[in-house]
Amino acid sequence: MANRLQQLHAQGQSIWLDFIDRTILRNGDLARRIRDDALTGMTSNPTIFEKALADGTAYDAQLSSLSGDTALDPGTVFEAIETDDVRNACDIFRPVYDATKALDGYVSIEVSPNVANDAAATLIEARRLWQTVGRPNVMVKVPGTPEGAIAVRQLIAEGVNVNVTLLFAIEAYAHVIDAYLAGLEDRVRAGKPLDRVASVASFFVSRVDTEIDKRLDAKGPSVAHLKGKAAIANAKLAYGLFLERFRGPAWDALAAKGAQVQRPLWASTGTKNPAYRDVLYVEQLIGPHTVDTMPPATIDAFRDHGESARTVDQDLDGARRVIAEIESAGISLHAVTDQLLAEGLASFQKSFDTLLSRLEAKTRVVAAR
């Protein structure tokens, strides 16, 4: 029997690992996952790097070499570490990138959270990360704020691959699609090729249910049947928008010049409510031209008992009804998604600040040895 993850990949969905640390890059585990589990990409963020740096000694040698330069601040030290890891991961995924003709094989690296609401600062940092990693299969993660969308257009026009992250609202996703398409048009006008420019739009899933379920609980048992349904419905409607926007004469003209669609990427697919099936947010969003980035535990769970069938575009009318019922119950999806974006940015900022603090302390310990 084929590995269940390979069956998932056969449905047209790319499987990315939402995790990075230096150990799996060196011990062959990442290469094994690419071979055995149809893994075709990787994502990282400040929280993931915070955990990687906190455990073990894999980074001690580099920290020791960097600690001799007292002019380096913790942010510069961290950037040196993360770009090394991402560059090495890109090299491991390079055969996937080549074999898929730049459709897959990407590794994401995120701009720092403190530039999320500053388009100019986002551009400066994104360009620096792109140039420092220096690999064609790196993707720079940019938050899907209004300012982030401005930066996305310019980055795509410059040929920088972009992972637009922290998307919760359909409206925000629409702006991101506009930015991507405008960036491609800018490249056409400049006479630049389109075939090696890639982007994904990372739509966060389980966090939507976590917040809406809490609000449904406060409304009482009459709306309990809606629990655990909002996130999947929201994501399915996002996929419906994807299907709508990447078709028709304007898109066909770009595709004829080699443009790729900006694939929806399902993020936050680990199940947070133990009452729900542990692969719920994977199984219900399977379909072509999508990416699912999963933490290791979710990948292991799907390998063990996940079921693969095309689901992402099934019953879009039902998804609309779910959202309408939630709105009728007095729960504003717009208010929820605004809150989740603010909380997501704050969470990454907290992880980033904690990471720098711990990194500074660990550097001192390593240097004193």
Description of the molecule:
- The protein is α/β, with parallel strands linked by helices.
- The protein has a single domain (4-206, 233-314, 345-367), classed as TIM Barrel (Alpha-Beta Barrel).
- Helices cover 57% and strands 12% of the residues.
- Strands 1-2-3-4-5-6-7-8 form an eight-stranded parallel β-barrel, surrounded by ten helices.
- Helix 6 (74-99) crosses helix 16 (333-367) and helix 10 (206-219) packs across helix 16.
- It is globular, with a radius of gyration of 20 Å.
**Topology order in helix (H) and strand (E) letters:** HEHHEHHHEHEHEHEHHHEHEHHH
Number of strands: 8
How many alpha or pi helices? 16
Q: Mind telling me the C-alpha Rg? A: 20 Å
Distance between the termini: 51 Å
- Relative helix content: 55-70%
Would you identify the regions where 5 or more consecutive residues have pLDDT less than 50? Answer: none
The shape, in one word, is globular
CATH superfamily membership:
Aldolase class I
Q: How would a textbook summarize the main sheet?
A: 8 strands, parallel, barrel
